[in-house]
Amino acid sequence: MRRYTERMKNLIISILLLGIVALGVYAFYQKVGTDVATKNTSETTPPPVSETTAAPTTPLEESIGTSVEGRDIVAYHFGTGSKEVVFVGGIHGGYEWNTALVAGALVDYLKAHPSAVPAGEKVTVIPVVNPDGLYKVVGTSTTNFTASDVNSSQSKQIAGRFNANKVDLNRNFDCDWKSQGVWQSQTVSGGSAAFSEPESKAAEMYINAHHPAAAVLWFSSAGGVYASSCGGGILPETHTLTDLYASASGYPAYESFDAYATNGDMANWLAKMQIPAISVLLTTHTDTEWDKNWSGVKAILDHYAQ
């Protein structure tokens, strides 16, 4: 009997020890499982997105018209505010290919920095008004090219200044328009009538439909900021924009471009439409001078944020 009792006692103790061990093992694996689950969650769930870490935005992209040869004239829109500022490049196509690149650089910058567009504003960038002329020189009608793609032939670049109808588009707008215009010492075609060309017509239709608060047009090469006017003097707001862009960028400011007559000029037509507009002439035909121009652009955007 005593031996039986001793056996029962040992059996009970063994069962209790096994139970304690089992509970310990269970608790251990519960903790490991929780840690693993927590670790996996932290690795697969991204942190909250903030303004500084936001992914690049995709702008609203639209074709506002097509060229003589059927290439799209593309506008990129950022922001949805009521004050629209339009930036334009590539009016002289391949002859001023760097103006398309600086406009394209602005598109890329705003994609990566959407908060650079102030609340209440809309930024529209039209990088290439003359896609056929650009194509002649760089082999594409978009800003997806580099300086190494540029055909170095001077005759080819000069041909790329004009559209496929051999019209100088910056002589085809309705401000002092003439069928023959001047470029440096050369006579150039202003078209058969103001807005006779599909490229300038597309620009006209967009401006008439949206009537932006202001416009900045890039050309090359002279290195300066030029106010616009069309027979009625310079608009007060145009004076303001000229001084703002010049001061921020470091370009000198001028009240007019007087090296030669520019009948049918787009910026001057905008002035006729009571839209403040400035022409920014890059210093050379090759550099975008991005830092200077971004400083000027930012000054304009900050102005309309007030």
Class of the largest domain, according to the CATH hierarchy? Alpha Beta
Residues in β-strands, percent: 15-25%
Broad shape: globular
Tell me how many strands there are: 10
- Specify the helix fraction band: 40-55%
Instruction: Write the CATH architecture name of the largest domain.
Output: 3-Layer(aba) Sandwich
How far apart are the termini? 101 Å
Tell me the number of structural domains: 2
Q: Which stretches of 5+ consecutive residues score pLDDT under 50? A: 1-5, 20-54
- Rounded Rg: 32 Å
Instruction: Report mean pLDDT, rounded to a whole number.
Output: 87
Backbone structural class: alpha/beta
The biggest beta sheet, please?
A: 8 strands, mixed
Question: Can you identify the CATH superfamily of the largest domain?
Answer: Zn peptidases
* Strands in their spatial order, largest beta sheet: 1-2-4-3-7-10-8-9
| N-to-C SSE string, H for helix and E for strand | HEEEHEHHEEHEEHEHEH
Count of helices? 8
